[in-house]
Design brief:
It is a single chain. This protein is of the alpha/beta class. It is built from 15 helices and 15 strands. Helices cover 43% and strands 19% of the residues. The longest helix has 18 residues, at 348-365. The radius of gyration is 22 Å and the shape is globular.
Amino acid sequence: MLISHIHVDYSEGRSLSTSLKVLHVASGDLWAGAEVQLYTLCRQQQADQGIELYVVLMNEGELARRLREMGAAVKVFDESELSFSKILARFLRYCKDVRPSIIHSHRRKENILAGVCSVLLRIPSIRTVHGASEFDFSPLSAKGLIKRLDDLVGRYFQKRVVAVSDDLKQKLCSDFPESHLSVVRNGVDLEGIEAVEKVQWASVQTRIGIVGRLTPVKRIDVFIDMAAEYCRKYPDSFCHFYVIGDGPLFTESKQRAESLGLSQRLHFLGHVSPAIPSIKALDYLVMCSDHEGTPMTLLEAMTARVPIIAHDVGGLNELLDRGRCGVLVKNNSAQEFEKALSALIHSEQRSSEFIENAYSRVKQYYSDEACAKAYRDLYLTLII
């Protein structure tokens, strides 16, 4: 749908645009859940005849490559080569040239860039918070001061702070007034996932996997210990366990698995891109993170009809509809996850119910089209 007569007010004067110019600013250093979600949103916006899409990234990488492949206008200000002040100067010049209707930021440094631009050029901006912070910073530390500055920018310089789940919105109420917060749920490419063929692994009876970047918050240690507990209880089973992802804990995690005698039953696949074919090959997906917002991995697994066992934390309770769409484990321990896994493996009917409920929920509330429409509606309320 063509959006016309959108009024944009800049410091240099006023102008009319016949389309909505959306400028995203993000890091782009990783290819993880937030980056997948941004790419999914950009793909929908690129196809929208009423939107001109621009993306500024701080790093070359998988996100930049994929965005260019789909024809998006991508500009990279490499943070490994440029100081923040130089990036800010270049970003301001770029915004003056492009004259976006709205700036949409996706991480702390990028939020500050967007906020400064909003003040100096009078361009409205919003941010999306993709998940709760993994760390607690001392208020007087450098990172603590940056967080405080980021919060001030979000509160006073940006028009809206968007959370990806109701749970995350409640957490953000400690930093922002509730009236300044909105919820836009992540979207997933239903048709694209359904069209993907699953990978063909060695023939085993049951495959249980965890997918994600190997960082402390993902609790890969719980998954490994769960696998060890299961193999101890059922030594003759044909279950195999798969770790799909890379990160700083890769070597340590592999050594942990070997020390527990899991060399033949637990497989480390490293970074896999795209991950969907591997997810579709799983019989069960486990997520034992200490906290999550609305993880794309879970949305993809729900779309791929893979039963889920997840820690009851953050946005996972909402996403899994309080246990209708997957098993929610209250206590994040290997023993509790092993009990949940064993029970689900031995209940085919329960797995089938989870699969159907999960797919219906994703289709109704978490499609990429619904997500893109929600953001477009939000943009329009803030610039008109």
